[in-house]
């Protein structure tokens, strides 16, 4: 029976998800990985958050050999609750309404790059390609491949 488990992989990644083990394989459903962030206002402060592990999979299931798991165990109640909240956020923001989230994020970034931009007014919205050029600080034109 699948249960919520905390795992450390041989790659060093620490993930949490619903785990089912069969025939030497571990299937992790809705895996989230632990990441560390730095407080922008106080770089000496760190925080931990969870984000999708392998976010571009269609079914949000990762299957790997059991030998790739260094250890696994039951997460604490606090971590389990945080997982539930983080998974809910991921589903809302990156899974179900990915397009809306991209639009919202683009609008937020646009407002930083173009302080005069007013959300919701088409004439002030920075086009995605224009925004990408500003973020990457590249000039318009065909993309160049690196060799």
Structure overview:
The chain is α+β, with helices and mostly antiparallel strands. It has two domains: 3-96, SH3 type barrels (Roll), CATH 2.30.30.100; 100-136, no CATH class. Helices cover 31% and strands 32% of the residues. It contains three helices and six strands. The chain has helices at residues 77-96, 98-113, 128-136, and strands spanning 3-9, 14-22, 25-38, 46-52, 61-65, 69-73. Strands 1, 2, 3, 4, 5 and 6 form a six-stranded antiparallel β-sheet that branches. A hairpin with a 7-residue loop joins strand 3 and strand 4 (46-52). It is globular, with a radius of gyration of 20 Å. The chain starts with a strand and ends in an 11-residue tail after the last helix. Mean pLDDT is 78; it is low at 122-126 and 138-147.
- Based on secondary structure, the structural category is alpha+beta
- From N to C, what is the helix and strand string? EEEEEEHHH
Shape: globular
Count of helical segments? 3
Strand content: 25-35%
Q: What is the CATH domain class of the largest domain? A: Mainly Beta
Number of domains: 2
Number of beta strands: 6
Average predicted confidence as pLDDT = 78
Short structural summary:
By secondary structure, the chain is an alpha+beta fold. The protein is 31% helix and 32% strand. The chain has two domains: 3-96, SH3 type barrels, CATH 2.30.30; 100-136, no CATH class.
């Amino acid at each position: 029976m699948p249960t919520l488990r905390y795992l450390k992989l041989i790659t060093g990644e620490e993930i949490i998800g619903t785990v089912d083990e069969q025939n030497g394989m571990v299937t992790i459903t809705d895996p989230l990985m632990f990441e560390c962030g730095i407080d922008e206002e106080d770089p000496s402060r760190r925080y931990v958050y969870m984000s999708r592990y392998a976010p571009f999979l269609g079914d949000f299931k990762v299957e790997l050999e059991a030998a790739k798991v260094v250890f696994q165990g039951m997460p604490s109640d606090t971590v389990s609750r945080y997982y539930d909240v983080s998974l809910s956020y991921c589903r809302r923001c990156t899974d179900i309404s990915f397009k809306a989230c991209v639009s919202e994020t683009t609008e937020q970034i646009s407002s930083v790059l173009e302080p005069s931009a007013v959300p919701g007014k088409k004439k002030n919205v920075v086009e995605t390609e224009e925004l990408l050029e500003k973020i990457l600080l590249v000039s318009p034109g065909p993309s160049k491949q690196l060799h």
